[in-house]
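Record Adenosine receptor A1-like, 377 aa.
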Amino acid sequence: MDFGFVVLESILAMAIITINLLVCVTIYLHKELRCITNYLIVSLAVADFGVGALAIPFSMVLSMEYTLYFYTCLFLTCFPLVTTQFSILLLLVIAIHTHLKIKLPNRQVMFLDRNPEYTNECLSLGSYPLRVKKRWVMFIVAFCWLLSLLIGLSPMMGWNRFQQYGETRNKSKVINFQRAVFVFVIRDKPPRDLLSQAYQDPEILSYSHGPVEHLGRCSFTSIFSPEFLVYFIFLICTLLPLAAMLGIYGDIFRVVHDHFRSQTLWPTKRKEMQMACTLLLLVGVFFICWMPLHMIYCIQLLCPSCEQYESLEHLAVLLSHLNSLANPLVYALRKKNLGLALRSVFLYRVLHWPSMKTCCGPSPKIHPQPEVIKHRS
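=>
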């Protein structure tokens, strides 16, 4: 299962890197797509890109359960927490932004201002002629990154299983199979850079540059306690934001339903409603992809003596990483303008299809006419 897991993770990582990079490049090349919602989508794509470029390779190392020094293993396990938490917080920010656009169409919010230069999708604002300033969006995204770093790196501040880590050394594959692996050595006083040494025999570990008690079997469960993964990561940092998002989208649908009943739902609000459905779908995909892995951690906490299936845990990890591939596919399929632009960039810029130069040029779908903007403003 280790080999199959590594192969599947490698394929998934390449797909995630490619499609999320394509999303970022597409919105950069198409100025008409540069609106607040798409800025947030780009930030989400950057986080998903980090999953493919770093989190998945780290996960493959963890699946091998190599003998590593504690602080090296701690870094490998903390990084996926950072990217996951940022995705959750950003989905919450997008939900709040959509809620403001629908529920507060004509009210002045302290960080909002007019911008008549934005186009159809960004100015689906007929009843919402206000736009969040770009610098505020950058500030909010930076704050989400900072909060994600504090949450994801909290184990480095002492919330870890350092005392029990050395006990897993005898269970390591290095000890059992006596095969050579690379062990990254971090001393109590770390040197300028990480040292890499190969050990052919477990007895040589006693003569390494680092203390032997800092060596152990590197995995999520050897670094994090089940209580940390369930009570803090799942219940507080994952379930609470998801519950808040469901409440926000529930209120959005209530407002739209009231407009339907009073027959005052403008075409622009119908467009915002479609966007809300797309974002709610993103939340649902996130829930489906991550829930199995969190359920496994809950079972490990509530039933420590229950038999654990490594293959089942690997499948849950694969499903959680699949979320980073599903995100861009969802909003590419649901948002016609973005989907058309993605297809244009992929075929014309990447594959260099000459015919795309004429078939996917400026069109009313991507480049709205000035009179439309004038009418809506």
